[in-house]
Design goal:
With 496 residues, the chain is α/β, with parallel strands linked by helices. It is built from 16 helices and 16 strands. The chain is 40% helix and 17% strand. It holds the Pfam family Arginosuc_syn_C.
Amino acid sequence: MSCSGEDCGSGWDMAEKGPVDSELRSKMSEIHGNPIVDSTGQLAKACNNNQVCLRFCLYLFPALSLLSGLQNSIQAVLTSEKETEGSSGNGGFIRRKLNKVVLAYSGGLDTSVIVPWLRENYGCEVVCFTADVGQGISELEGLEAKAKASGACQLVVKDLKEEFVRDYIFPCLRAGAIYERKYLLGTSMARPVIAKAMVDIAREVGADAVSHGCTGKGNDQVRFELTFFALNPELNVVVPWREWEIRGREDAIEYAKKHNVPVPVTKKSIYSRDRNLWHLSHEGDILEDPAKEPNKDMYMMTVEPEDAPNQPEYVQIGMVSGLPVSVNGKEFSPASLLSELNEIGGRHGIGRVDMVENRLVGMKSRGVYETPGGTILFTAARELESLTLDRETIQVKDSLALKYAELVYAGRWFDPLRESMDAFMEKITATTTGSVTLKLYKGSVTVTGRESPYSLYRQDISSFESGQIYDQADAAGFIRLYGLPMRVRAMLENAG
């Protein structure tokens, strides 16, 4: 309940009301405006301050039996307002003390600055967490020293590569999930596995909060926080970019110097990149103009297709129940298999995608993605399904794949809907077992062969030669029945 201005007192006549009890009179000094009394003899008040109005309602309504639960509700609102109002020089935030915060840490400028900022503003210990999802060994070197120099009490590093590929990438591959026709969801799949690990670490170290360095314009903030909500809704979530005064790189450098935080000396890329075992994404600089062609020196995982070998390379992908298990007859673990295909596909310029996508937060953005191994695997999975799935199943699977991709892109990995859809995908691909042979040549992937013990393809039926199972003469009756609606419509139009 709230009131403002004269609306709070319209229709009330003080002259006809009885005396006001002494406790209520003592509260009048807290209120600015004209006092009014209702039919119960209790005081109401015209005011412009919502909190004061709410506080006063605590005295107004206890006598009304039908509204007995309202007092607790209003008190909760007041408590919430007290926790959030005020100012600490940060746009109106007032911060309560936290015990320990687990920070998603990369070692770059932003996360290095977040460490002392958290300590200064929340009075907490900071545990830095870095997930190894295949971003490369160079990204992990010297992180512990950087974290502790920034003020962290410890750094935790977890190797999540196998979990990432097995439990996140492969289910999306099995589902055929592609966002807006092109994007193979590299960053989208990585965020929930990292956020899940942060929740686990928070439990292990006794942290009462988690934090990330995502900005307020991107998708990743949603992906991190929805995972936190799903796995531990009791955790506090601190997002510095939505609170602090820092607005750019120069501000961050100045803050770092002020707090004796060593500024990373690595040369800042003109591109914003995200790398993991599945892909490498590029945004920013020249890419912000959709009309501009990317510079050749931007790419890091793939060679220029025209510079790729002049001889094609054939690769055979073995799959069991919709999931890849081998390359050229050799079995690999999930992460090792993807690494192998990244190397093979990269040297042939496979898997480059340039697209303008619709971000979850509403804006369009242009991104360039390199997904060499993933492109090979998606092609193999689709081709094997052409043997093992019937027409109706493929159509339903393709329609659900669109929704599946949207859920993953939007950070709803742990949503019951995605989990239910995943159970469906696992069930219908149970017979998607076999192998696919692909030809890689100067940026293209071409299927040259496919086979499966569960193949629905029958040469004796599909052959143009007459056979025992399919009698070509039966087609006449089928066509007449199948085309009956068209014939009826034509007859009606001709009769008119």
